[in-house]
Amino acid sequence: MTFFQKILMFLATGFFSGRSPVAPGTFGTLAAVPFAIVFKIIPAPFHVVYSVGVILIAIFLADKAAGILCEKDPGCIVIDEMAGYVVALSLVPVQASTLVAGFCIFRFFDIVKPGPVRYFEENFPGGAGIVLDDVMAGILTAFVLKIIYLSGVF
Questions:
Q1: Per the structure, how many domains does the chain have?
Q2: What is the pLDDT of residues 83-115, one digit of tens each?
Q3: What is the sign of the dihedral through the CA atoms of 72, 75, 81 and 84?
């Protein structure tokens, strides 16, 4: 493996969190927490730009990593969970309660894969197919979190 490929794999595996022998997606989502906290730093108008940037980088990394590993959707690639979790936190203030609730709700949607999530997983090739199902899980999570937030629970 070249140096570039090693760096790419380090990033695509969520700083090697995806190499966990149990629940790599869960550990990958945990690795995304600092990337969600960025929302506290950047102004709200840039949240969409930041989210789209993370998604595009994730698609690139997932596609290249899957090619290196010669697998369609390797379990150790968790950059998709990281992108989905960032999207999940994009509509609410980032605080301990939203980070934890977002984590739990996102993991639920990512594991259960309700209709729209499954559609993106099954109908897009390469890096897009790896990442977009998690982005859809993140979008669903963002809406649920927003409803909970607006109800005054947080």
A1: 1
A2: 999 999 999 999 999 999 999 999 999 999 999
A3: positive
140: its two tokens: 């669903």
How is residue 42 annotated by DSSP?
A: S
Please check whether residue 22 lies inside any domain of the structure: no
CA 112-20-13 angle, to 5 degrees, is 85
Q: Does 20 fall in a domain?
A: no
Cα angle value 98/15/6 (rounded, 5°):
155
**In the chain, % of residues over pLDDT 90:** 97
Q: Quick one: average pLDDT of 45-69?
A: 97
Q: Which of 56, 83, 77 is nearest to 8 (CA)?
A: 77
Q: Is 82 contained in some domain?
A: yes
Structure tokens at 3: 């140096």
Task: Tell me, yes or no, whether 102 lies in a domain.
Answer: yes
How would you class 1 by CB atoms within 10 Å of its CB: exposed for 0-12, middle for 13-18, buried for 19 or more? exposed
Tens of pLDDT, residues 127-154: 999 999 999 999 999 999 999 999 999 8
Tell which phi-psi region holds residue 95, choosing left (phi > 0), alpha (psi between -120 and 50) or beta: beta
